[in-house]
TrEMBL record:
Protein name (record): Release factor glutamine methyltransferase
GO molecular function, one term: peptide chain release factor N(5)-glutamine methyltransferase activity
Originating species: Muricoccus vinaceus
Similarity field: Belongs to the protein N5-glutamine methyltransferase family. PrmC subfamily.
HAMAP family according to UniProt: RF_methyltr_PrmC
C-alpha cells in the first residue's frame, strides 16, 4: 500500500485497500477492506464510517497491511478474521475445515420445516461436522435436543467443541473424532450432513479461495461427486429413528443422482429446499420402510 504513511487516515487506508483488492479480483473489495481494517483496529465497521479522518495507529497499520496482502492472495477472509457468522452463531474457523456458508443455512431451514414441533427432536447427529455449524444451529433451534457431531479429523473435532463452548451449547453437544457413523450406536430424529460433493476433477477449477485454501478432504466427492452420498446411504437406515429425517446438502445438479443413490438404499426423498440462488440445496429423506 504505497502512499500510506504512519498517521494516514482511516479513509485513505480504506480507499487504497479497496484498490488493492479490486485489482486482485476480490468480489466485494470495499466491504472487505472495512472488515479487515475494523479487525486490525479492534473496532466496529460503523466506527470507521463515522470518522474517516481518524488516524490509524501504527500497530493497526502493520496488522492491516499483513492481512490485506494475504487477502489479495485470495486467503479467505474468514481465515484472516478467525471467525465467521452462521445462522445465529459466531464460529471460530480454521484452514483445517470448510468455512461455514450461507447456502448451508438452507439445511437448517429445511430441518425446521420438517419438524414444526420443535419438541419432536430429541437427538441430533451431524456427520462431517467441521466447525459444528449445522449441529450447533440445530441445537439452537431445537432447545430440548442433545447433539452429536462426528468428524474424521481430531483437530476439527476440537474446533467444533470449542465452538459449542463459544456459543453456550457445550452441555448439549458431544463431538467425536471418527469415521462418520462407524462408531455410533442409537438412532436420531434429525441427521444432518454437508458431505464432500465436488467432482475430483473440478476442484482446481473452483475459485482460488476454495481450491487453494480449503481442505481437499472436505471437498472431494470422488470421480462423480457421489462417494460420500453412497457412504451416507449405507449408514442412514441404521441411524434414523422412527419418524426421523435426514437433511443433506447437495451440489448444483445433484438432486436426481443423490435421490437415486438414497432410494436404492431404502430411503425416500420427502422434500427438497432451494437456496437463495434457486439451487436445490437441502434434500430431506425419510426411511422408506
Amino acid at each position: 500500500m504505497s502512499g500510506c504513511e504512519p498517521g494516514d487516515s482511516v479513509g485513505a487506508f480504506l480507499c487504497q485497500a479497496g484498490q488493492v483488492l479490486r485489482a486482485a479480483a476480490v468480489e466485494a473489495p470495499r466491504q472487505e477492506a472495512r472488515l479487515l481494517l475494523a479487525e486490525a483496529m479492534g473496532c466496529r465497521q460503523e466506527d470507521l464510517l463515522r470518522d474517516p479522518r481518524a488516524p490509524v495507529p501504527e500497530a493497526a497499520q502493520a496488522r492491516f497491511r499483513q492481512t490485506l496482502s494475504a487477502r489479495a492472495r485470495h486467503v479467505p477472509i474468514a481465515h484472516l478474521l478467525g471467525h465467521a457468522g452462521f445462522w445465529t452463531l459466531d464460529l471460530l474457523t480454521s484452514p483445517a475445515t470448510l468455512i461455514p456458508r450461507a447456502d448451508t443455512e438452507t439445511l437448517v431451514e429445511a430441518a425446521l420445516d420438517a419438524f414444526p414441533d420443535r419438541r419432536a427432536v430429541r437427538r441430533v447427529l451431524d456427520l462431517g461436522t467441521g466447525t459444528g455449524a449445522l449441529l450447533l444451529a440445530a441445537l439452537a433451534e431445537f432447545p430440548g435436543a442433545f447433539g452429536v457431531g462426528v468428524d474424521r479429523s481430531p483437530e476439527v473435532a476440537a474446533l467444533a467443541h470449542a465452538n459449542a463452548r463459544r456459543n453456550g451449547l457445550a452441555e448439549r453437544a458431544a463431538v467425536l473424532a471418527g469415521d462418520w457413523a462407524a462408531a455410533l450406536t442409537g438412532r436420531f430424529e434429525l441427521v444432518l450432513s454437508n458431505p464432500p460433493y465436488i467432482e475430483r476433477a473440478a476442484i482446481m477449477g473452483l475459485m482460488p479461495e476454495v481450491a487453494l485454501h480449503e481442505p481437499a478432504l472436505a471437498l472431494d466427492g470422488g470421480p462423480d461427486g457421489l462417494d460420500a452420498y453412497r457412504a451416507l446411504a449405507a449408514a442412514l437406515p441404521m441411524l434414523l429413528a422412527e419418524g426421523g429425517r435426514a437433511v443433506l446438502e447437495l451440489g448444483q445438479g445433484q438432486r436426481g443422482p443423490v435421490e437415486a443413490v438414497m432410494e436404492a438404499a431404502g430411503l425416500r426423498a420427502c422434500g427438497c429446499r432451494d437456496d437463495l440462488g434457486g439451487i436445490a440445496r437441502a434434500l430431506v429423506l425419510e426411511s422408506g420402510s
